[in-house]
UniProtKB/TrEMBL annotation:
A Pfam family matched in the record: DUF2147
InterPro entries recorded: DUF2147
Taxonomic classification: Bacteria, Pseudomonadati, Bacteroidota, Flavobacteriia, Flavobacteriales
N-terminal signal peptide: none
Residues of the DUF2147 domain: 27-142
Species name: Bizionia arctica
Protein name: DUF2147 domain-containing protein
Highest taxon above the source species: Bacteria
Length: 145
């Protein structure tokens, strides 16, 4: 009887693990170009020391794959966008991750940032100056393999 109970509970266990994973911001996300509304890049969001970071791991338009961040300042100046960490130091605050920054490699500008899941496979990314009312929101889609 105990074996039958374990067999019946096993799918619930795996469903629970899958649900927890799908509700995480960790993973690969497709960014969308604001002007063309087409996929632009893939950013891998990862956690390090309880903070969230995001790195460009793919540029969709292969003609721009070797583009440098010529408008960036500091250590990112003239560095390849592919492989660049563009999201840094976000900390968990309830249902959002905030308090960090995001870099727009097209302009070289760094903004304050917060991110929040809007469903399992949609990520709200808000970059702003000063306070969050003055900014821009993008929605990124989870890469599903």
């Amino acid at each position: 009887m105990k074996t039958i109970k374990n067999i019946l509970l096993m799918p619930l266990f795996f469903f629970g693990i899958t649900s927890v994973f799908s509700q995480s911001v960790i993973g690969k996300w497709t960014t969308i170009d604001d002007d063309t509304n087409k996929a632009k890049s893939v950013v891998e969001i990862y956690q390090e020391n309880d903070k969230i970071f995001g790195k460009v791991v793919e540029i969709i338009d292969k003609t721009k794959e070797h583009k440098l961040c010529d408008l960036c300042e500091g250590t990112n100046k003239n560095q390849p966008i592919l492989g660049m960490v563009i999201m840094q130091d976000l900390e968990k605050d309830g249902d959002t991750w905030e308090g960090g920054t995001i870099l727009d490699p097209d302009t070289g500008k760094v903004y304050k940032c917060y991110i929040a899941l809007e469903g399992d496979n949609k990520l709200k990314v808000r970059g702003y100056i000063g306070f969050s009312l003055l900014g821009r929101t993008q929605y990124w889609n989870r890469e599903i393999n």
